[in-house]
Amino acid sequence: MIYKFKEGYRVTGVKAQDVGDELQRLRDRDGKIETLLLVNEAKKKRSPIHNAFEWDDSVAAHQHRLYQARQLIKSINIIVEDRPEPAFVHIKIDNNGYYQSSEVACKNIDEWDIAYGQSLRLLESASSSLEELDKVASRVRKAKRTSVRKVRKSVDKAVTQLQAK
Hints:
Number of helices: 6
Distance between the termini: 42 Å
Shape: globular
Radius of gyration: 20 Å
Number of strands: 4
Largest sheet: 2 strands, antiparallel
Structural class: alpha+beta
């Protein structure tokens, strides 16, 4: 099989073909791929996926804490008229991101446009994922194609409505 990274996706220090081959080898060996197994295999310096991971524990621990911080911020809701709403939204400008009070972001036109655009990109990504699933289903699970296409059509409709602003 020929493996390539998805468009826009790069992993420093490894080739997509090597990653795909290694993932398939592990899947063939174990019947599935589990993340813990993948990390354990990648620890071996001769592994073709070794360089895809951060092995400096202090750097990796810091990155994990940043991940935990993002999860913590995203876990907080405010209650408005007896309904939960996200307290904060993520705003990303270039490669810099921060969280803003949802209310402030909705009132600030620049932050609103950024958050709106990010939501649109997430829906477009969902549509792309469903398109990929549809391609696989056409070969493997033909009976499931109808439901995948129906959901994708709904997502595409949402994308179109958001694009219309």
